[in-house]
Amino acid sequence: MNKTLTNHIRNTQLLVKRLEQKRPLTMRHSCNVNKISCRIAQKLGVEDETELAYLRMGTLLHDLGKVDIPTSIIDKPGLLNNTEYCIIMKHTIFGHQQLRSFPIEVSQIALYHHERYDGQGYPYGLNGEQIPLLARICSVADVYDAMVSWRPYHKGKSLQEAIYELERGSGRQFDPFIVGIFINQLLDIECDQSIVPL
Ligand SMILES: [Fe+2]
């Protein structure tokens, strides 16, 4: 492994510790997003070791910008009002700024993971393949983990409910090819209960 990549991995570990301290729930979610994204990438045939390393770093740190958002908004139970929602959306920009010393493939995951395939996402309303591949992968993993996770203010969806929502979002929120591959993985898990869910 080259020296630059080793340095980026070391810096990722430092930032992961920071996120763990300030936002432990976000860090747990980010670890799940990381694992799910790596499985999707494997199924997509992404084999380049450097690209996979960028995916690991970017997914672990995709919500890093949340350390700059007030805890009262991050931990607010229930719906956010318009002002709070506008503030929370900025975590993509803040995360991107904090990752500017990383390769662009890494910082773009933080910046674009809330973009939508139909162009209705944020911060820029990019659509389709304007959104970098690694960010499109992270988006599917991010939403899936948020749906199935239990939070103080919402119960996690079942696997079947999550698959239904992913299908509904195919071609709208998500890249249809990526979400199709992921749904097939989930269906394999549903058929074989001996496999530990993602
Ligand atoms: Fe996010």
Task: Produce a short descriptive summary.
This protein has 198 residues and is mainly α. It is 63% helix and 0% strand.
Task: Describe the fold and architecture.
The chain has 198 residues and is mostly helical. It has one domain: Hypothetical protein af1432 (Orthogonal Bundle). The protein is built from 10 helices and no strands. The chain has helices at residues 3-22, 24-44, 49-60, 71-74, 82-89, 91-98, 104-112, 133-148, 159-169, 176-191.
CATH superfamily label:
Hypothetical protein af1432
The CATH first-level class comes to: Mainly Alpha
CATH architecture, please? Orthogonal Bundle
First and last CA, distance:
28 Å
Extract low-pLDDT stretches. Answer: 193-198
In what range is the share of β-strand residues? under 5%
Put simply, the count of helices is: 10
Mean pLDDT: 93
Radius of gyration: 16 Å
The CATH topology assignment is Hypothetical protein af1432
The sequence of SSEs as H and E is HHHHHHHHHH
Provide the number of structural domains: 1
Coarse morphology: globular
Helices and strands, with pairings:
Layout: H1 3-22, H2 24-44, H3 49-60, H4 71-74, H5 82-89, H6 91-98, H7 104-112, H8 133-148, H9 159-169, H10 176-191
Helix pairs in contact: 1-2, 1-3, 2-3, 2-8, 2-10, 3-7, 6-7, 7-8, 9-10
Fe (ii) ion binds next to loops.
Main features:
single chain, 198 residues, mainly alpha, globular, binds fe (ii) ion
